[in-house]
Amino acid sequence: MTDSIMSKAATMEIPINSNGDTGTLPEDDSLEQDLQQVMVSGPNLNETSIVSGGYGGTAEGIIPTSSIKGSNMHHSSSSSSMTAEEATRGVAVEKLETMKKWGLNTYKCTKQMISERFGRGSRTVDLELEAQIEVLRDTKRKYETVLRLARALTNHFYNMVQTQHALGDTFADLSQKSPELRDEFGYNAETQKLLCKNGETLLGAINFFVSSINTLVNKTMEDTLMTIKMYENARLEFDAYRSDLEELSLGPRDAVAMARIDAAQQQYQLQKDKYERLRSDVTIKLKFLEENKVKVMHKQLLLFHNAISAYFAGNQQQLEQTLKQFNIILRPPGADKPSWLEEQ
Description:
This protein has nine helices and two strands. By secondary structure, it is mostly helical.
C-alpha cells in the first residue's frame, strides 16, 4: 500500500504536455491570459456537440446540436438584432456628441457675452459696417412710423368715403320725396357721389402705397436684419473661440496642452471663416437694400404726392391718370366680397 501511494505521488509531480512529453508548468500570467481567452472566445451553446461513446470517442459518434436546434435561424435573428442594436447605439452616440458640442459652444459664447457686458473681454469691431447697420435699424423704425400713419390715414379716409356714400344716397332719396327742395338735394347728392368716386380712386392709390411700404419694411429690410443677426452671432462665436485660443496660448506647453491648442486653432479658423463669410453677405445685402429702397420710395412718394394733390384739387382726370401711370387697377365695388355660392 505504501508503494502504491509513493507511485501516485511520483506520478503527480511529473507534468504532461499535449504531446505526452514531459515539460514545465506555464507561468501564471500566460495561464491567466489563456483563461481569459477561453472565457471570451469560449464555445457557443449553439455550436456545442453531443459526443456518443464517451470521452475520446471517434468523430463518427458526434451529433451537432445545430441540427437539432436549427442554429441557422438563431444565428440570423441574432445577427439582425445585433445590427439594429449597433445602429441604435450609433445614433445615440451621434446625438450625445451633438449635445456635447452645443453645450460647449453655448458655454463659450455665454462667457464671452458676459465678459463683453462687464468690459473685461475684447470684441471684434467693424466700425464702418456697424455704422451702416445702425443706420438701417433707425431707417426701419422711421419707415414703420410712416407705415403706421399711412394705415391710419387709409382707415380714416375709408370711413369718410363710406359716410359720403351714405350721405349721397340720403340726399337722393330726399330729393325724390321733397319736391320743394328737389334741386338742392339733387346737386348735393351728385356732389357726394362724385366725391365718393374720387375717394375710392384715392384709396386705391393709398392702398398701393401702404402695400409697397409694408413689403419694403417687413420683408426686404427684415430679411437683411436676419442676415445681420446671423452675422452678430458669428461674431460672438468668433470672439469666444479667439479668447479661448489666447488663454490656451498663455498656458503650459506640454503634450496635452499642445493638443488642446491645435484643436482650438482649428475651431478658431472655422469660426473666422464663418464670420468673414457672413460679414461679406451683410455688406452685399446692405448695398442692394439701399439701391432697392431708393428705387421703391422714389416711385411710391411720387404716386402719393400726385394722387393726394389731384384729389384735393378736384382734378378727377389727373387722379385717374396717376393710377394709370403706376399701373394700379381698382377693384369694382363688391369685388372683394365672396359670391353667394362661396358663402354657402
